[in-house]
Amino acid sequence: MATTGKKLINSIERCVDESLEGTAASLPGLRLLSGHRVMVREDVAKVRTAAKVTLLSGGGSGHEPAHAGYIGHGMLTGAVAGSVFTSPPPADILAAIRAVSQGNPAGTLLIVKNYTGDRLNFGMALERARSEGQQVDMVVIGEDCALTSPDKTAGRRGLAGTIFIHKIAGALAEQGQSLQDIVTVVTQAAAQMGTIGISLSPCSVPGSGPSFQLQQDEFELGLGIHGEAGVRREKMRSADDIVSAMLDHMTSPDNSSHLKIPEGSKVALMVNNLGGTSCLELGIVGRAAITYLESRGVSVDRVYSGSFMTSLEMAGVSLTVLHLDDTITACLDADTSAPAWPRCLPGHSRTSDVHIPAPQHGATVGPEAHIGQAAQTEPQRLEKLMQLVCERLIKSEEQLNCLDRAAGDGDCGSTMARGAKEILASLSHLPFSCPHDLLFNMAAIVEKAMGGSSGALYSLFLTAAALPLQSSTNAAAWCAAMQAGIQAIIRYGGAEPGDRTMLDPLSAAGRALSTGLSSGRPPLQALEEAVQAAEVSAQATASMPARAGRASYVSADQLTQPDPGATAVAIWLRAAHDGLTAS
Question: Contact at 8 Å (CB) between 36 and 16?
Fold first, then answer.
């Protein structure tokens, strides 16, 4: 038995009214007609006296921001809201007509989606308004391309393309065009427009269960904005394949409601979120649709992506294609104050050439020093050391992952191994004769290969450590490099020694190395003491409370093993020591 969908509402009966009240309270310039579910421009009285055509639209609620979000200069004068997925009553529609048309000789245009209830109720209100002497006309928008048979008596449904008609009619009205001229232009535009939608999941009307059921591996092609059945269900595929299926259906001559989009056409594309689709997915769908159309010789001159006409929380998208001419393009580009219409930069044309050249890494690293002039060292020795470090980290992948499963997401070892493998793959190209350059190159590699916080922290460490090696590569310079790297992690990472992180063994090793060298011990002996200090510190993290990183969100009684990041530091420090002593 279907369960009731969860909703952030106070009551089923008042949810539409409270939503309208919230919209009016949030958006300057919008007001509700008292006693009616009608939103109008705050300056509606001034609009009536301007002797320009006023525009009304509306329908059932649940499609927000349609239609109240399109009220404003250059679009609608008002909008009428019904209950969720229910056409508004004629009394509210008539009240809206009176509010925007009384005393206005230019007349009022009703923009109605092609649903039986909307046609009937808006039609009844129109006839009553005309009997009162108002000049009113109506256009019915039905641009749905899902229907495959011409014998569907209800006809093509009105979908997100209706918003294009709001924009075109609004721009013409602002120009002072006559009611009849506006009807002519928008009727022609609607005939040159098509919409097709797909759903990944159902929606649920407040107080009810899901409007339909879809299997986890299915999507539905051609459904309506109220959850009406589509033309077919198919197995999930890639976004590119699904978009191709949508546009193939939209343009197929075998489909009685298809839209012809011949090569050389200029079009506008609307990528509409049906309610529960992420912005990330919209970008992918938009990319796929643009690629599909342009591969067929179609010029996609305008693209609008976002939530234009939704279906409550339904996961899915619709694509609308509108043929452009100079008049329609100018109308789409015209200014509007409607809050839900996307703001586009005037004078900026859309392009599919989305990349610009990335700046190259400059040669200068300081006011006087150049990377190629940095201190030199023994390249073969350093290369063998680096190879051993990487091999040890790769070998320790599962050990580190196992430690990380208790404190994080179980991928510390995999992350370290990715960085190590990428460095190994780059060994023949790395500048081992110049440690300063080497650390800069390694910083770039781990930042990209490791990613996430670990990649950023190691990149910071290596970048900061490079500077002290610019003029010298003796033991004191390497000690200074280590201290510089530690300080960079503290400065930007938000952790300190004692927080149960990689900083604990790094700091212990840094202190021991500094102490050993300042006491006159041979560099390799000082390094051995530093590595031992790191290993002891890493092991000690097993009994330390976590105050930074993901482990800080884990209950202390679950943190009984050493920190994986700290253990990784001890591993690569020991490998570095072994590499030096072996050579």
Answer: no
Residues 29-35 have a mean pLDDT of 96
Give the span between the Cα atoms of 486 and 474, in whole angstroms: 19
Q: Which residues pair with 84 in a beta bridge?
A: 61
Three-class SS state of 348: coil
CA 17 centroid distance within chain: 30
Question: Residues 6 or more apart from 124 whose CB is under 8 A from it?
Answer: 90, 93
**Is residue 490 scored above 90 in pLDDT?**
yes
For residue 123, what are its two tokens? 């039609």
| Structural contact between residues 278 and 306, judged by C-beta atoms closer than 8 angstroms | no
Mean pLDDT of 119-132: 96
- What's the start-to-end Cα distance of the chain, in Å? 73
In angstroms, rounded to a whole number, what is the distance separating the alpha carbons of residues 131 and 79?
22
pLDDT above 50 (res 367): no
Q: Residue 201 in 3-state DSSP?
A: coil
The DSSP symbol for 62 reads S
Q: In what order do the strands lie in the sheet with 316-323?
A: 232-235, 218-221, 193-199, 316-323, 266-273, 299-306
Query: 236-245, 322-331, 360-369, 398-407: which has the minimum mean pLDDT?
Result: 360-369
Q: Could you tell me where the beta strands, DSSP code E, fall in 42-104? A: 54-61, 78-84
In whole angstroms, how far apart are CA 435 and each of 144, 181, 332, 524, 526?
64, 75, 58, 18, 20
Q: What is the pLDDT of residue 571?
A: 97
| CA 560 remoteness from chain centre | 39
Q: How far apart are CA 245 and CA 253, in angstroms?
A: 14
How confident is the model at residue 244, as a pLDDT?
Answer: 98
Q: What is the mean pLDDT of residues 219-233?
A: 86
Half-sphere exposure of residue 547: CA atoms within 13 angstroms, side-chain side: 11
The model's pLDDT over 424-464, given as tens digits with 9 standing for 90+, comes to 999 999 999 999 999 999 999 999 999 888 999 999 999 99
Q: Which helix (H) or strand (E) holds 23?
A: helix 15-26
Helix (H, G, I), strand (E, B) or coil at 57: strand
Least reliable range by pLDDT among 136-145, 216-225, 325-334: 216-225
As a whole number of angstroms, the distance between CA 447 and CA 457 comes to: 8
Give the burial class of 337: count Cβ atoms within 10 A of its Cβ; 0-12 exposed, 13-18 middle, 19 or more buried. Answer: middle
DSSP 188: H
Can you give the pLDDT at residue 565?
Answer: 92
φ and ψ of 240, to 5 deg: -60, -45
Q: How far is CA 471 from the centre of its chain?
A: 46
The tens digit of pLDDT for each residue in 234-278 reads 999 999 999 999 999 999 998 889 999 999 999 999 999 999 999
| Distance separating alpha carbons of residues 113 and 184, to the nearest angstrom | 17
Tell me the average pLDDT of the chain.
Answer: 91
For residue 434, the Cα-to-chain-centroid distance in whole angstroms is 42
Just list the catalytic residues: 226
Handedness of CA 157, 162, 168, 171 (dihedral sign): positive
Q: How many CB atoms lie within 10 A of CB 193?
A: 24
* Cβ partners under 8 Å of residue 173, min gap 6: 52, 53, 54, 55, 109, 182
For residue 194, give the H/E element and its range: strand 193-199
